[in-house]
Write a structure and sequence with these properties.
alpha/beta, Rossmann fold, 5-stranded parallel beta sheet, 5-stranded mixed beta sheet, 10 strands
Length: 310
Amino acid sequence: MRILVVGAGAIGGYFGGRMLQAGCDVTFLVRPRRAAELAATGLVIKSPLGDVTLKNPATVQADQLGEKFDVVLLSCKAFDLDDAIKSFAPAVGPQTAVIPLLNGMRHLDALDAKFGPERILGGLCAIAVTLNETREIVHLQPMQSLTFGERDGKQSDRVRAIADTMGKGNFGSKASNEIIHEMWEKWVFLASLAASTCLMRASVGHIVASPGGRDFILGMLDECSAVASAEGHAPGTPFLKRISGMLTAEGSPMTASMFRDIKAGAPVEADHVIGDLTARGEAAKVPVPKLRTAYTHLKAYEKTRDEVAR
């Protein structure tokens, strides 16, 4: 099975690297700068689960891409999706399966429109990973998982084949019969965390320690859960219990990557993660005042950032 990983950043580099380490046929679609880095130093992963340096990983650049791949693993940010689609489109053939690991749901519409829904699986990952100043992939916590599946819930031959291949990477890969529901649950968690920590410019622990902070976070979770329920994907009780505990843990340093992006002055996925959920809630007549405030806050940040960049 030939796998094309779009990019060799934190997420794509980690999962692609673990599969490459296990002997899988993996190629990274990268820009010239990243190709030069990988040729010089290899793909370096620093992890509590084991470090590895993979010398001379196979890479290809967009203008060189002509072969078809069995699987395309896509882990870009939502604001880079259009460019990513253009870059890997030549690799998608009639039998190719695309596994997007983006948050939310809007990306599925764009991928369906370009390649047809029959080629697009559902997917999500759970991992804390980043690139350090020397462009090494740093795995911050032992947590790691990658879940994928047919969006209609069926167990297909291609999903079983992908599961067999990804299982060699030993990163908690799982084929799911409820991938869309699981994507919704992750979206509920991520949106609750991102909206709260971005609005308050603080970690979960600092918010919870402030007057009204615990009620605020739980209220945000209630709004996000209500939108998911209106869309036919009510979060399960075990999920809500676990997530409520994480979002109200005293002393927790947890923040959303979106909050860290704001602190760094970087682009954010305001429309894809918070804006789309807000719009769906309002369309379903679900009250989402906290989400709406968070979205307005993020759009104001984007405008301020754009002015500074000019």
